[in-house]
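Colleagues,

Please find the record for the two-part complex below.
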Amino acid sequence: MLTEALALSAVLFTIGVIGVLTRRNAIIVFMCVELMLNAVNLSFIAFSKLYGAAGQVFVIFVMTVAAAEAAVGLAIIISIFRHQESVNLKDINLLRG
Amino acid sequence: MPTEFLPLLYSFHFYLFGLIAVAGSIAFVTRKSPVAAALWLVVVMFCIAALYVMMDAQFVGVMQVLVYAGAIMVVFVFVVMLLNLGEPAAIADVRGKWGSLIAGFLGLALLAEIMALTRSPMDLRLIVPPVPVTVNSTGGIIGGVAGPLFREYLLAFELTSVLLLVAIAGAVVLGRKRNAN
């Protein structure tokens, strides 16, 4: 099942990358990043069946970091929305030269 | 999960959940409405949790349902509700021709890379021999994860608690109204 799990993980990661590149809604881009994190977690779990429980410990760390990232990122999105009245990445171009 | 019993049933369910996960994630990136996208992502996360349980990581599967599907996605839906973005048809957010072209090219390149890697023989120095997984009989399922978490990775564990504290403080500061006294 290792090969199938790794292939599934790669496919999910690719779909996440495509979502990040094609969507302009900041919230959906953020959710695509979560999908990529999940794909990597899946390969960690697949390898933990062979190499011991350290992979599962890593997945727990990744989940913690993802939760912290979601909290801070969504707070940033809310604060940008207050400023710009939009979450479209097209409108967020303050640093464009 | 006893793989040696009922191997056909095991692989059937593995492929079933895998297919639902791929279909759900494709539906997730193509939905216009953020709420529909979030609910499709919840479907994907439940399928991944089922795969975790099938791959002998029951505790992580439970954490996946509780933390990801239960907490993080609820925060996302909550923020979507809070921002009140309007009609999904009105906020066309899919990038134009160039964005899709670049994304499709990158997706094809990644998939070709995976295919090439699976076909080519691997360098023997890169293959780590599998270590026999010792199951702690007294600790149960959680003991197998908690043992290394509180021994080898204790420092990282403590650092994540600092990270969570910083994240809480940061979210409060960023979410605060600017001119509130």
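Chain A touches chain B through 65 residues (CB under 8 Å).

Comments are welcome before we finalize the supplementary table.
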